[in-house]
Design a protein that fits this description.
The chain is of the alpha+beta class and 194 residues long. The protein is 20% helix and 37% strand.
């Protein structure tokens, strides 16, 4: 088993290295959200709380399931760290290091980059999204999303009430940070723009 895990880590490292490249410059607006006031929960325990549409630059992605699964993998097999507005500009996000781990994304910048006020504001123009595919077409597109892609996603922000009693609440604002700041996005339409 040790050899298998070491090989899996090696393959993952090669795949991640292949995802890196020159920073991409994208001009994409802020995500659009309209509140819903529904208390209906579907058979999977998913409650829609807002319509949500976004065209964003994908900075990083993390897959969950199999050996690296967690309690939320059955709902959301993929997280993406995204940027919009000034955060999607190459001269901003290109000076920032992005990592994802444990359903969080982390960013940091060196002292020189920190002198740029746009870099200091980066958290206001980026987020980590837990993607839940609403159908097979959305699932297929989500599986193909990679770093540096510009994607168009449409659907709903949702809260999830798992059968084991756990509750996962989506963020409903783009201005929060830290635990609970991730959007849980039920994606009904997805397209890789470029």
């Amino acid at each position: 088993m040790q050899g298998f895990r070491a090989a899996a880590v090696m393959v993952l490292a090669v795949m991640l290295a292949g995802c890196q490249g020159e920073p991409r410059d994208a001009i994409v607006p802020a995500p659009r959200q309209s509140e819903l006031y529904s208390i209906a929960t579907d058979a999977r325990g998913i409650r829609k709380v807002a319509t949500f549409d976004a065209d964003v630059l994908v900075l990083s992605r993390a897959s969950y399931g199999g050996l690296i699964g967690d309690d939320f993998s059955d709902y959301s097999p993929v997280d993406i760290a995204v940027a919009w507005g000034e955060g999607a500009r190459a001269d901003v996000h290109g000076r920032i290091s992005i990592t994802q781990s444990g359903r969080f994304y982390y960013w940091r910048a060196g002292a020189e980059a920190w002198q740029d006020p746009r870099v200091r504001r980066f958290g206001k123009f980026s987020a980590n999204w837990h993607l839940i595919p609403a159908n097979d077409n959305a699932a297929a597109v989500i599986r193909g999303i990679g770093a540096n892609d510009v994607v168009s996603l449409h659907g709903h922000l949702v809260d999830v009430f798992a059968p084991d009693g756990r509750r996962y609440k989506t963020s409903r604002t783009r201005n929060d940070q830290g635990a609970g700041a991730c959007e849980i996005f039920l994606v009904s339409e997805a397209r890789i723009v470029s």
